[in-house]
From TrEMBL:
<protein>
    <submittedName>
        <fullName>PCOC1 endopeptidase</fullName>
    </submittedName>
</protein>
<dbReference type="InterPro" id="IPR008993">
    <property type="entry name" value="TIMP-like_OB-fold"/>
</dbReference>
<dbReference type="GO" id="GO:0005576">
    <property type="term" value="C:extracellular region"/>
</dbReference>
<feature type="domain" description="NTR">
    <location>
        <begin position="11"/>
        <end position="131"/>
    </location>
</feature>
<dbReference type="InterPro" id="IPR001134">
    <property type="entry name" value="Netrin_domain"/>
</dbReference>
<dbReference type="Pfam" id="PF01759">
    <property type="entry name" value="NTR"/>
</dbReference>
<keyword id="KW-1015">Disulfide bond</keyword>
<keyword id="KW-0964">Secreted</keyword>
<dbReference type="InterPro" id="IPR018933">
    <property type="entry name" value="Netrin_module_non-TIMP"/>
</dbReference>
Length: 135
């Protein structure tokens, strides 16, 4: 028999992100900008995946990204098929979580916004400041 989805609904009623670059930076495990190479949405009970080519990494949080980071590809698990919305060929600021096995995860409430060059400076400044309450 098919197994029930894990506790908690994989998708919220409405996909919407909360907060700002600043308010989400410290609460996210990793922060990067990247261009979506491919998005695969599997069967309804299966997580989807996005493959992203990294432009800049601002917070690694244990992500095993090879150096140099620019051009490295990263697989991000998408537990919700509907959000965050990612379009192939588009670039985004991606703030996500790390699973226990070190896999990168973009939960439905992940802070994901289309990337604009002027965000680079903001993200660079944020990455230089220590996050309170976190190592």
């Amino acid at each position: 028999p098919p197994t029930a989805p894990p506790a908690g609904t994989p998708c919220p009623q409405r996909c919407r992100r909360a907060g700002t670059l600043q308010s989400n930076f410290c609460s996210s495990d990793f922060v990067l900008t990247g261009t979506v190479k491919s998005v695969s949405r599997g069967a309804p009970q299966e997580p989807g995946w996005a493959v992203v080519s990294v432009l800049s990494l601002y917070k690694a949080g244990g992500l095993g990204i090879p150096q140099p980071t620019k051009g490295a590809t990263l697989r991000l698990q998408l537990p919700c098929r509907l959000c965050p919305v990612l379009k192939k060929g588009s670039s985004y600021v991606l703030m996500g979580r790390l699973e226990e096995d070190g896999g990168a995860l973009l939960p439905p409430d992940a802070f994901v916004v289309p990337y604009r060059p002027q965000q680079q400076q903001v993200l660079g400044n944020l990455s230089k400041r220590p996050c309170r309450g976190n190592p």
